[in-house]
Amino acid sequence: MKTQKKTAIILGATGLTGGILLQLLLEDDRYEKIKLFSRSSVGPPNEKIEEHLGDLMKLEQFESNFTGDEVFCCIGTTKSKTPNKEVYRNIDYGIPVAAAKLSAKHAISSFLVISSMGANAKSSVFYNRVKGEMEAAVQKEYLGKTYMFRPSLIGGKREEKRAGEWIFKQLMKVVNLVLAGPLQKFRSIQPETIATAMVKVANDGFESHIIESDTIKKIAASSD
Questions:
Q1: Considering Cα of 177, then 182, then 187, then 189, what sign does the dihedral take?
Q2: pLDDT at 177
């Protein structure tokens, strides 16, 4: 029996992890169409790609086109890039939650979102609290298969320069060597690892809705 090919939605395909995820899905025969919702184009056209450009803060404008089988939400910013807390919340909370609502409305049962290590709706740390509140709000939509990926510091090269983050990443390369046992989840993680794990979970499922950084690595390794 021929398996029906799927349509995937990616939010954040112009970002580091989202861009890698896009390439994985383009090379994956299980997907026949990839819908991208972003502020700018990813570049050269591809027959599998369907782009919808606009303000993701107003995701409802895309409602009629927000249909598919799986949603990969790779939206996220940083404290240094977005120092205004209100804007930060609108991005890291507002966009994923709006996407989850549209997914529920269109009966998209698979929703995979990148959160962050330390996400906790009751945290006294603003950034951890926002991620935790986002997770809780997304889960309230009762989508069939919802997965929260909580990576530690994400490695890789970004287009924009972040001097402080670069220095911290160099330090983490040394720290990673001594983080063992239960502390392994604090090791930095590569965007390729996250993207690979997301595709694996989307197609094979996973026993937990919350996937910590060390588990993300194990899932990615198992897909080789």
A1: positive
A2: 47
Strand residue runs (E) in the chain: 6-11, 31-38, 49-53, 70-73, 110-114, 145-150, 210-212
Pairwise CA distance, residues 224 & 221, whole Å = 6
**CATH code at position 71:** 3.40.50.720
Instruction: For residue 85, give Cα distances in angstroms to 125, 135, 136.
Output: 12, 18, 19
Between the alpha carbon of residue 21 and those of residues 2, 50, 76, 80, 191, the distances in Å are 25, 15, 15, 24, 9
42: in domain: yes
User: Do the domain assignments include residue 77?
Assistant: yes
Overall average pLDDT of the 121-143 stretch:
94
Separation of alpha carbons 46 and 31, rounded Å = 13
Contact 122, 157 (CB under 8 A): no
- Whether 36 is covered by a domain: the verdict is yes
Q: What is the model's pLDDT at position 80?
A: 82
Which of 21-30, 98-107, 163-172, 201-210 comes out lowest in average pLDDT? 163-172
pLDDT at 2: 62
Number of domains in the chain: 1
